[in-house]
Amino acid sequence: MSGVPLGGENPAGPDDSPEAPLRQFHTQFGAIEATLKLVVEDPPSFASGLADEVLELPAETRFTESAESVRSYIVDELGPVDALGPQFDELGAEQLAEILAEPVDSLLQDTIERVFFSRTPTTVLVVSSAYETVRLALDVLGQSPDKDSARTAVSTVLALFARIHQGAYDDVEHEEWVKALAVDIVRGRYSLRNIIDGPPEAQKMDIDTEDALTAAVRLGAVVAYARLDISVSRGAELAGQSVDAFESELGKHGVDPRYGPTNAEDLEGSVLDDT
After folding, report:
1. How far is the C-alpha of 44 from the C-alpha of 235, rounded, in Å?
2. At CB < 8 A and 24+ separation, what contacts does 199-205 make?
3. What is the pLDDT at residue 239?
4. Are 23 and 247 a contacting pair, CB within 8 Å?
5. What is the model's pLDDT at position 41?
């Protein structure tokens, strides 16, 4: 549960700048670039080239083949990578999940808390949905999947981080980028559900952008409700749904609604005993 109080105020006032939800990504990625300096002469260019390599893949293969594309890019830029050991060739599934779990969770928490301070939280909710989808991919990796499933999960992580990197560092039109991220979230979750629920199915190519944006916003609202001290009605407001519809949305993701006391006896037992 977040330590941010419901209705809390940002001392600097609401921050609705397009880059606000991506600031923590800048911070985390800055640390990665510092490490890359040990092996790469120009880390920002290397990272941008890697992200471009992923995003240039066709949509129907980006969430299954990004891992191999990134490997080829690294070999082309740095030469043979035999010294990295067998984990690299096997994608390092469990190791990657362990390494990324904590920073991704931190990114998600820091981003979703911005709903308290944003007048127009769409970007916050969509970016949070992307991180939640990365978390789902890491969960898959942590379960010792077969090689094909591991490749899909790693490719999903890479595809989403490449899109987030684009929004954080490239000169792109913000609203179009948010929609592109929403479509990527839908594609990523579709690929991961194929692993979890099986058997694999062909990627759905005709994803409606507005439908994808709606789905990403609703997932973000579920994440906000699960992680923050907000009411069902506030979650429904964020999701753009009725309370009943949002409760159904929560159920789809295995999140139980929280309700306050319904009568005087419950109130006395839950609140008055603490005063």
Report:
1. 38
2. 203/59, 203/60, 203/63, 205/59, 205/60
3. 97
4. no
5. 86
Q: Which pLDDT belongs to residue 167? A: 94
Q: How far is the C-alpha of 54 from the C-alpha of 40, rounded, in Å?
A: 19
Residue 231's region, left for phi above 0, alpha for psi from -120 to 50, else beta, is beta
Amino acid at residue number 94: E
pLDDT at 80: 67
Contacts of 91 (CB under 8 A, 6+ apart): 67, 147, 150, 151, 154
Q: Can you give the pLDDT at residue 215? A: 97
Please give the radius of gyration of the chain, using alpha carbons only, rounded to the nearest integer. Answer: 20
Give the pLDDT confidence score for residue 202 in this predicted structure.
56
Q: Is 21 exposed, middle or buried (0-12, 13-18, 19+ CB in 10 A)?
A: buried
The DSSP symbol for 145 reads: -
Domain ranges in the chain? 20-198
Nearest to 195 by CA among 245, 256, 135, 149: 149
CA pair distance 229, 4, nearest whole angstrom: 8
pLDDT on residue 20: 79
Max Cα separation, the chain?
A: 71
Q: Which segments of the chain have a pLDDT < 50? A: 1-13, 83-91, 262-275
Q: How far is CA 204 from the centre of its chain?
A: 20
Q: What is the pLDDT of residues 131-146, one digit of tens each?
A: 999 999 999 998 878 9
